[in-house]
Design brief:
94 residues; four-stranded antiparallel beta sheet; 1 helix; 9% helix
Amino acid sequence: MFNLYHHGQQHVKIFTGRYADNDQLYVALEDKNGELYADLSVCISGIPLARDEFVFKTYSGNEGLLEAMMHTRRIRVVRIVNPTLGMLPVCRLT
């Protein structure tokens, strides 16, 4: 668990899995009670990703979350992609 400063201080942990659609990496944050805090990844077909990369969801309730996660040094941006949703970062967990 680690502290994340997003809408105040949050105590969260990273949860990973795989999307059933295309086996892309699924990344989420859970709070101290094991409840979902945020989905960090989004599943987008047609985006070539290495097995340890994921497309970071920066829209909807995730505004400011990329910056907050980068501040924790738990992720790093490796490139930007431009699917129909707009420019989105491709990240790796560190």
